[in-house]
Structure formats: structure tokens, C-alpha cells
Amino acid sequence: MASNSSSDRQRIAQQRLRIIAGHLQGPVDSDSTILAAECKAQGSKTDVSSERKTMPRRRQEILKWNGWGYSDTRFLFNKKGQAEFTGKRYRLSGMIIPALQNWFEGTFGASMQHKSPAMPILTSSAVQPPTLNEAFVDELKSTGIPFSHDAEDRVFRGHGHCLHEVFALREGKVGRVPDIVVWPNCHNDVVKIVELACKHNVCLIPYGGGTSVSSALECPPEETRCIVSLDTSQMNRILWIDEKNLTAHVEAGIVGQELERLLNESGYCTGHEPDSMEFSSLGGWVATRASGMKKNIYGNIEDLVVHVKMVTPQGVIEKGCQCPRMSTGPDIHHFIMGSEGTLGVVTEVTMKIRPMPEYQKYGSVVFPNFEQGVACLREVAKQRCAPASIRLMDNEQFKFGHALKPQVSSIFTSFLDGLKKFYITKFKGFDPDRLCVATLLFEGDREKVLQHEKQVYDIAAKFGGLAAGEDNGQRGYMLTFVIAYLRDLGMDYYVIGESFETSVPWDRVLDICWNVKARIIQECKDKGVQFSPLSTCRVTQTYDAGACVYFYFAFNYRGLSDPVHVYEQVEHAAREEILANGGSLSHHHGVGKLRKEWMRETISDVGMGMLKSVKNYVDPKNIFGNRNLI
Amino acid sequence: MAVNALYSHRDPMLKKRDDFEDILEERRNSSDLKYALRCYTPVLYKGVTPCTSSMLKSMVLQSDQLHYVINQVSKETGKATDDVKEEASAILEEMAQCLQLSTVRFFAFTLTKAFKTLFRSICVNEDGIQRLQQAIQEHPVVLLPSHRSYMDFLLMSYILYTYDVALPVIAAGMDFMGMKFVGEMLRMSGAFFIRRSFGGDKLYWALFSEYVKTMLKNGFAPVEFFLEGTRSRTSKSLTPKLGLLNIVMDPFLKGEVFDVNVVPVSISYERVLEETLYARELLGIPKPKESTSGLFKARKILSEDFGSIHVYFGQPVSVRSLAQGKVNRCQFNLVPRHIPRRPGEDIASFVNDSAYRLVRAQEENMVLKPWVLVASLLLQHHHQNQAAGQKRGIALGELTAQAVWLRDLSRQYGAFLHWPDHIPPSEVVSSSLTLHRGLVRVCEEKVQLAVEQAAGPAGPGPHSSVAPEEELLSQAVIILSCASYRNQALHVFVRPALLALAIHTASSNQKQEVFNSFSFLRNMFSNEFILCPGATVQDFEEACYLLVKTGALQFTQQEVQVTERGHRTLAFLSSMLDPFLQGYQVVCRFLCEEATETLIEKQFIPAVRKFIKKHLLAGRLRYMEVLSSDLQKNSLAALLRLGAVRKIKGVEQEMLKVNKVMVNSLEDTLGGKLPTPKAAVARL
Ligand SMILES: Cc1cc2nc3c(=O)[nH]c(=O)nc-3n(C[C@H](O)[C@H](O)[C@H](O)COP(=O)(O)OP(=O)(O)OC[C@H]3O[C@@H](n4cnc5c(N)ncnc54)[C@H](O)[C@@H]3O)c2cc1C
């Protein structure tokens, strides 16, 4: 980085901001975010950054309480029936998306006439009064750590973003939710809270960004103790950056976009970009073994973590040094990563950082069919020349992407008009109902990026792939940020859906894609779903020995008496199909409670025993009682 | 086995079946040539483009599976991989089909001519064809016709061509290749050829299974084979062979296709072309070799009337739904799928169960002609009269009345009976007799089997010009031919008949005793009839249900009671199985009396045959049917399965080691001589 002038740094930082995390227009600060208690233990340390954009304690002030993302941002069909994306945060914000309605009605058999609106506000009578452990509350008060048992605060921490969770909220239904929310400000606060919890036997559930899609944040209904949600959002400082070793020591509550923004200011990045990075937290990533879009360059969370500190009922667990690799028995990080909040709270993490890349370039390749596309990805992986990101969307997703083309926009002007023109002018021999597209993201030195790009396009050409421009690629990535908002739009019109993922050896990729999609369609039919569902997939990550596959699935539920149950049955069947086809239980979403039933067959009896014995030693009273995983 | 459970059965009479359409009718009224040259544009699986046979071969040779096995064989034998490859390529050459539309058209033309002279009609259920069309577009399809005649697969292709359905590729036995020209013709109409046995030959197995899977997975063509492995010479369904079924289910089990649709097809001939040929074969009278000239000699049959054929395309069965909850497909996750592996126990029993279910599905839709009932009655009369020393036959009127009784009974049991109700029963019976005039004699309104024919009017005796043994055989030809018609109806009656027999042999009326007896008999005969493995209780309940429903049985508390009118039914049913019972007993007796400690396996049939002939000639046995080698083989298989006989590897050939005590007690139990079959069952 020494060679870079600071203005260069500034420029790159700005560009990066624009490209990835730049959806945010500005800080949404509210007075309530001002630190409530100074953390004495760390009072001497200074924050690396001057300006912090902390998630307010009352998240509901800027985020939807019953849907995805920011309150000011949503899709809607306007009076003319055209889809519109509101707000100012995203590139797509304020734009009209003319093709969406057609695609939406055609794909789902949905209609603008049939609306299924959500309950606008939460009636507090729907929320059970909190079960308070008075002794615990008294002692907690004396620590000065802020907490709340306000109904809205509690409801917000009682769910993640699984379909059934959001659907229930839209109907104003609330099940068991935490009784208290507490906001520690630093590691020592967490130590105190855990001590008190053990002393008074209350149940603790760590809460990071709340983006879980595995029912991990759901409170076990059978839990009779007082449940305390430990919201890490106020622990969001970068404590230090070590430029010699290229590491940063960060508090675990920081959310992805904030971490990148702050590091970028110093010319660095982690490069860890899960699609949920706007909201998900560092601690959440560690707790779920998250995976970022650009793992090909930067690695998944397990590759990025150098040191972790976790507070458990038995005390603090951490390694005694910040070393790159050790041969000291099983790596204790691997008990922590993926523990899903069952063992303790991750409070601080040392992460690898990299100088920000000089140059980024999107790209796309259109293949005549999915088989060819998969063959190309396999070859790219074999030659170990995968770009920062490479994703292969199937035909349905390709069309979906096209339906999201905004009306006019400087960024999209180079884009030809309409799907038809697109393939007629450029991809004559290709069947529009079979072709599929791979989206690419290259990163690094300008020269190397161009070289790399050529290498990948050359391989693609061997599999019949034709370069299809940067915009197409960029739009593909945009889709992943707005998809969660789209689900809320669907739910306004009787359409429910979800995504799920798996990893699978290369030789099984094609088969698993066909079979799982076919299974979804068949199950929907068997369960009385009137209109054939959207059942689509993309190969979203490549590895030496296999790939990660991501499925989207949505259907129109008009005429079904219990749509969520049908949905869950279909997803269950789809997961069985995945397992029967040699796929994993999860590549990165984790197990939570949603996929617990398959853990035994996934890791064997002995494996279960190992995990259980660790749990029994670390947390014999089941203080971390979210009952995930095992 | 609670009594209540008896009545939970679905009434077989309510079985819904499609109507038939005669496809020859149109042929009789329009140009055969035009028909043969008509535009043929079948719809294929997911609209795949057809693949040439050479493309197919190279796909097979280049597959991961073959690659793996070729390397393995090369390592084991020390041969160069290129040599093994060449060998593989040659095997594939010998195996592969090369379907050509021109050949199909040639057959369409010639078969039309032949069919029109041989048969009155060829009836097909068009709804079934429609279901098949649908199935072909959705998933790869396997066609499983029943196998009673060489004609079966030509007939299948002929029908599919007629309805514009994708032509299948057919697994055929190598013996066809003996007929050079015909073999090649068949190859060009879609047949591919497999050696009858290739036991440990890895390369052959790999090629063969990969060849079938490649065709199936890619949906190039429906794959057709005979679940029974070979033509049934007895008209009874044969115990299914599992090799090919394993292969076609494999792509589903390994997740290479979403599903496979299996379509059982029931082909029923009013008269089988091979009728007496089969009887002679079963009796060990040397059969003419399957040669081209032999087939042409068969031209004389062109002048005969073979009645009609009914072809019923059954409901497509999804392998996925068959496997639901029965197999855990995850077991294929840990080893690359192209590495050949012996299927696990759960897979083996799943395939076996499925095979039985599919054979039963074939049986259920077999059309029975009135003659099948008439033949059953005539056989029983023949043996009763013989026992009583009478030789006069049964009065036509009496026969008709009994046939009507049996018609109603079989309908209640769910038989797919084609009895023309608009024609007076007496006419129905006489026209059956006319069509089968080779097997019956009608003289002065009396009907009897044509067993005297060969021996001349004088009958057996010292003055006869024919050697007694020869006469015996020629009578047996007639009996076995008739029995093969009766056998067509066995699947309808076998469960109630086993119950009738069980009631007969059980030591008391106690329901538990009867069940034990039933269970013993069912177990004993499970190589003889299609009885689904592990379904003893269901079968028992079904049998009880049918007999109670038709008023032949009553259940009081713990007892089984035969009703007044039930005696007739039960007598009929148990005499239906009598020949089999006697057959098994005589085989047991042979093994106890004649066999030395060990017996060369190959010697078994000739020796038992000699033993039986001796007893028949001495008048100690009632049923000539016991001369059937099919029955003898089945009973040996049963004894082997039960462990009463064991196979041991001799120096040069396989030997049979007989446990005489056990065989003896089995024989006694079959004859109802033991106080309770429990003891015998316990010993099994
Ligand atoms: C639209 C969308 C896109 C997504 N894309 C990705 C993706 O690309 N890659 C990916 O990996 N995942 C993705 N996810 C899933 C989710 O974002 C990840 O699982 C993420 O790591 C969760 O982080 P979080 O901070 O939101 O944790 P939460 O949802 O708050 O919690 C998840 C689990 O971790 C525990 N936990 C949280 N913080 C801590 C802590 N500090 N210490 C101990 N336990 C803790 C909780 O108790 C809970 O069990 C996506 C989810 C959505 C909704």
C-alpha cells in the first residue's frame, strides 16, 4: 500500500463504496445510538475510525419489523401497475421496473387484483408479557448495561428471516420471544452478563444482525426460564489494525458494510461479502460459518479468522497467540465457528485484511445451456483460475434478472432493449428457453484482471460461452441484494418463497440441480399448489472438489388453507432430495433448528456425541439455550 | 390377523380397467403398404433428438464407468488397455441394436399380412397407450411386457409403431443370434442382444449395464425387456429375474434421473403359437433348434386360427414412488457413482419386491378367455373320471353350467375375464371348444380331452401298437397344453386355493392352525406362483376376504367354517392345486427313495422324470402334469431355499446333498400327515 498515494486510496475507497456497500446514502443516526455506558476496560483504547454508524438499539426505527431491510425501501406496484423500488439507498432506488409485473404475473399466475397485505403495526396485546427473573434484572441494572423489555424490542429479536417467521409477523402473530434485550458495549460487559446469567439461571441467546435463515434465533417454545437476547450491535469498533501482519482486531457486533466502510477508509478490506452483509455481523458469521461472494480471493470465514475470543459459561476461550497456523491438536476455532450461539458469545475477532484492490470488473458469459455452463465452471475450478466471484444462473434466473431491468438509468443505457433483442442480436443459435448466464467479478491489479479475464473467457469459449457484457454481470449481483426485498413484494400478492443452498461434488452438480428443481415442482403439484412454482437455481461458488448450489423457490398460494405448512413440506422434501443426491445439509446458512433433524446422518452418531460432550462441558446448565444444531 | 382386518380389503371386482380397440380392423380395410410407409413422428422424452447407434456406442465406450472397468480389467489381466478397449468395442458391436425405420416399415408390412391371417383381432387399450405417451415425455420409460411367445416383442413394436409411440430398444437373448438373418433383422428393429450368462465377466457386465443406462438416462428410447427373463412355457408368470431391473432402477437410485416410469404390459394370447412346442419341451422331448429354417417351417401354422390377442398397457409405475421410504439413496454418496458396486441388502430386497409387484401388475391385466375356465374344468373332470375308471367325458350342457358357475366366481375374484355376455353361454363354450379342437374331443354331446387320439381307438393295453411310454408322453402333451390354459387363471385363484388347501390339511378348524398351514403351503409354493415376498398375512387376509365375500367361508370366534355352498368352491379350488401338491410330494419321495447321499445336479431332471414315468405307468400317480420339468425345477428350488437340499461344489459339477429327514417330513406335511404343520414350519 505504501506505493499508493493517499488520493489514490481515497479514490479507490470511494469507488469501492459505490460498488459494493454504497447502497447506503448516508448515516441514519439517531440519538438513541449514542453510547449508553462507557466501556471502562477499553476506555484507554481509541477507535480506529472517527465516525461510526451504529445500528440503533431500537432497530425498528430504521428497519422493517415484519419484512426485509430498511423501512424506507421496498418494491411496490404503482397505480399504473408498474413496479417501483422506493427510497434512495440503492442504485435501483426510485426507479421503475417495467417488465417486473409481466414476469411476476406470468411466472406465478398472480394478479394485481389479489392482494394479501401485511398487518401494518404490531399490536402489543399479541405479545406475551415477559417472564422476568427479578434477581437477574436487579443485578443487571446495577451493572449499568442497557436493557429493555419493551414488546417491540423483544419481538424484533425473536426471529430471523425464514419464510415462516416473516409470514407470521405479517399476520401479526407472535410466538415465544425473548423476555429481555440487553446491549453490551464491550467484551467485559458480555463477561458480566454471562456470569449473571449463570448465577440466576437465565437463558441467553446471542443476536447479531438477525439475518439468520435457519430458525436459529427462534426461542424454543418449551423454554420456561427468562430468555435474554444479547444484542451485539453496540460492540462495533475496530480496535486495532496491524498493517505489518495485515490483520484487524474487531468487535464481533460490527455489521459487514460498516466493517468494510471503516477498513476502506484505511485502504483495506476483508473481502468477506455475504449477500446479507448490509445487516449481518462478524459474530454471526463466525457463529454460522458464513461464506462470502468473493471467497475465491479472500476465503470463507474460517480462512479469514486468525483469533477469536468467546465468552462461555466456563470462562473465556481464546488462543494464546495470533499465529497463522498451529499444530496443537484439533483447532479450537472449529468448536467456535458454527457453534450457532450454543456455547457462548463471540466478542472479538482478529481477521485478515487485504489492501483494497486497485481494479474491479464485472463480466458475464452466456451459454447455450446449463450443462455447458456447469462444464465451464468445472474447468475454471480445475485450472484454479476462478475470478473473485463466478456464478452460473439457470434459464429461469436469467429471465428473472431480465425482468428486473430498470426503465432508464445511466448505468443501464448500454443495455439492449428487452430480452428478445438481447438474444436475437447476439446469441442467434441459442434457445432463449435454454440459455443461461454466468456472472463474473474480477478484482486485483488492472493488468492482471485483464489477463485473468481473457483466460476465463477463453475457457468459456471452449464450452460455447459468449461474452455478454459487464452490465449483465453487474445486474446479476444486484439481484442478490434486492431479492430479499422482492420476497416482501411477493407476499403482498399471495406469493411466498425462500432460498436454500447446498454444496455438492462436481460430478453431482447437474443431477442435483435438475432433481431438486423437479422435486419442488412435483411436491407443489402433489400438495395442491394451483400454479406451477418458480423453481430455479444457480451454481454460486466453486471449489476444487465441488460447488455450492443455491435454489430459489416461490409459488402462488391462493386457494391453500395453510400455505406456510405446504411451503415447509416442500422445502423439507427438497432438502431430502438434496441429501439423497449427495448434497450437504448446508454450505453456509447453518443448521439452526430448521435442519436439526438431519444432523445425525450428516455427522454420524459419534460426531453427535463429540458435539454434545463439548456442549456439556462448556455449558452444562444450557445457559446458551437456543437449542440449535444438536 | 384380526378378523376385522379381513374386511378392510379392497374388492377386486371394483378394479377399473380400460376398454380395448382392435387395431387389425383398420388394417383389414386399408392399404398395408400405405400403413407401412406412413409418416411416423413419435414424441420423445423432453424432446431429445434421436441418437444414432454409433453415437450411442461411443458414448458408452467413453463413459467414466467403462473407463474405470477397462483399467481395472487391464490391471488384473495384464492386457494393454487398448486391447481391452478393443475387446469392449467388439462386445458392444455384438450387443448393440441399430434401429432402422426402414426395417420397422418392412416388419409393419409383413407382420400386418401375417397377423391378419393368424389372428382374428389384436386388441389394445388405447387409454394405456395415451398414458404411455405421457409417461415417455415426462421421464425415461421401461416397458415390461409379459413373455409367452417369441412374437411378443415384434408385436409390441408393431403396436407402438401403429400408435406413433417411440419405438423401444429391446433386450433379447443371444439365442436369436443363432438365426443369422432373423437376428440382424431384429437388431434393425431395435433388439440388442445379451449373452445368457456372463457371470463374473466384469467387462461384459459393465458394457451391458452402461449401454442400457445410457439409452435410458438420455431418453433416446424406451427400454423394453422381459421381467420373467424367458418365455413362460406354462403360461404361469415366472419368478422375476432381477438383473435388468436392477440396471434400469440404478439411474434413479443414484440420482442420475429424477424418476423412471415402468410400464407393465400384459399380452394375452387366446392361443399361443408355441402351444404344443412348449408342452414337448417341458416333457423333455427334444426341441427343434431355434434356426431360421425352423421358423419358416412354422409357416404351416399360418393356416391355423389363433383367435385374438389382448395387449393391455398398465398404469405407469414411478420407481421414485416405489422407492419412497424403502431405500436410503444417501448410501451412494460416499463412493463415486461410476465405480461398480454390489447393491446393498436394502436395494436388493427393494428391487426384488418391486419385481414381484410388477409381475403381479402384469398378471392382473391379463385377459382371460372363456376357454381358460373350460380347460380348468375339463382337466379336473379328466382326473376325476380317470380315478373313477370312467372314460366318457362330460355332457356339454353340464360343462356349460359349470363354466357359468366358474365365470361368476372368477369375476368375483377380480379376474379380467372376456366372456361375451350377449352370446348364450352354450355358444360361448362351443366356440371355445372349436378354437381348441386340437385339445378336446366332442363326441355325442360329450366333451373330453383329446388324450386318446395318439393312442388310437384301442386305448392302452397289451394290444396297443404304441409303446406305453410313448403313449404316456403323447397324452401328457395334451394335458400339459390344457394345463397351460388353466394356468392363465391361476393368479386369480391361487390365494383362495392355498387357503382351501390349508383348511383341508390343517389339523383343526382353528384359525391359527389354518393360518399356519396356509403359511407353510405358501412358503412351499413360492417358487411356483407369484407370491410377493413377506406378504403372507396380506395374502391370507385377501383369501379369507374373497371366500367370506362369496359365502364359502364363515368365521366364528376362532374357527373357520366351510358353508354348505362353500364345499363346491373349496373342492374346485383345492383340486386346482392338487397336481402341484402331488408334484412336490413325488419329488420329495424321489429324493428320499432314489437319490443317493449326493446327486449330480444335472442328473436331477432326467432321474426324477424317469422315476415319475415309472410311477405313472404303474398307475400310482394321478397327474401327468407332474412330468413337467418346470414343476420339478420349481420344487427343487423350493427345497434348496428351505435348506432341505443343499448345493455343493463337486469336483467337476454341482452336486445336490439331500437332507432326507427334512425332505421326508416336508412330504408328510404336504400330505397333511403330520398332526400340525407348526413342527415342520419351525424346523424350516
Ligand atoms: C438475504 C440474505 C442473504 C444471505 N446471504 C448469505 C451469504 O451470502 N452467505 C452466508 O454465509 N450467509 C448468508 N445469509 C445467512 C446469514 O446472513 C448468515 O448466517 C449470517 O452469518 C448471520 O449473521 P447475523 O449477524 O445476522 O446472525 P444472527 O442471524 O443474528 O444469528 C445467527 C446465529 O448466530 C448466533 N450468533 C450471532 N452472533 C453471535 C455472536 N456474537 N456470538 C455467538 N453467537 C452468535 C445466533 O445466536 C444465531 O444462532 C443470508 C441471509 C439472508 C437473509
From TrEMBL, chain A:
What keyword terms does UniProt attach to this protein? Acetylation, FAD, Flavoprotein, Lipid biosynthesis, Lipid metabolism, Membrane, Peroxisome, Phosphoprotein, Transferase, Transit peptide
Question: Would the keyword Flavoprotein turn up in this protein's UniProt record?
Answer: yes
Principal location listed in the UniProt entry: membrane
Which molecular-function annotation in GO is an example for this chain?
alkylglycerone-phosphate synthase activity
| Cofactor requirement | FAD
Record's protein name: Alkylglycerone-phosphate synthase
- Give the location in the cell: Peroxisome membrane
What is one GO biological process annotated to this record? ether lipid biosynthetic process
Matching InterPro entries? Alkyl-DHAP_Synthase (IPR025650), FAD-bd_oxidored_4_C (IPR004113), FAD-bd_PCMH (IPR016166), FAD-bd_PCMH-like_sf (IPR036318), FAD-bd_PCMH_sub1 (IPR016167), FAD-bd_PCMH_sub2 (IPR016169), FAD-linked_Oxase-like_C (IPR016164), Oxid_FAD_bind_N (IPR006094)
Which positions are annotated as binding substrate? R487
What this protein catalyses is: 1-hexadecanoylglycerone 3-phosphate + a long-chain fatty acid = a 1-acylglycerone 3-phosphate + hexadecanoate; a long chain fatty alcohol + a 1-acylglycerone 3-phosphate = a 1-O-alkylglycerone 3-phosphate + a long-chain fatty acid + H(+); hexadecan-1-ol + 1-hexadecanoylglycerone 3-phosphate = 1-O-hexadecylglycerone 3-phosphate + hexadecanoate + H(+)
Q: What residue stretches are annotated with the FAD-binding PCMH-type domain? A: 174-356
CC per GO annotation: peroxisomal membrane
Which Pfam families does the entry link to?
FAD-oxidase_C, FAD_binding_4
For this protein, the Enzyme Commission number is 2.5.1.26
Q: Where is this site: Important for enzyme activity?
A: R391
Its UniProt pathway annotation is:
Glycerolipid metabolism; ether lipid biosynthesis; Lipid metabolism
Main EC class of this protein?
transferase
Automatic annotation (TrEMBL), chain B:
InterPro entries of this UniProt entry? GPAT/DHAPAT, GPAT/DHAPAT_C, GPAT/DHAPAT_LPLAT, Plipid/glycerol_acylTrfase
Pathway, per UniProt? Phospholipid metabolism
Which CDD domains has this protein been placed in?
A: LPLAT_DHAPAT-like
Tell me which GO cellular component terms the UniProt record holds: mitochondrial membrane; peroxisomal membrane
Main localization is: membrane
- Which GO molecular-function terms appear in the entry? glycerol-3-phosphate O-acyltransferase activity; glycerone-phosphate O-acyltransferase activity
Please indicate if the UniProt record lists DNA-binding as a keyword: no
Q: Which UniProt keywords apply?
A: Acyltransferase, Membrane, Transferase
What does the UniProt entry say about where the protein is found?
Membrane
Where the record annotates domain Phospholipid/glycerol acyltransferase, the positions are 141-270
Q: Which family does it belong to?
A: Belongs to the GPAT/DAPAT family.
Under PANTHER family, the record lists: DIHYDROXYACETONE PHOSPHATE ACYLTRANSFERASE, GLYCEROL-3-PHOSPHATE ACYLTRANSFERASE
Q: What is this protein called?
A: Phospholipid/glycerol acyltransferase domain-containing protein
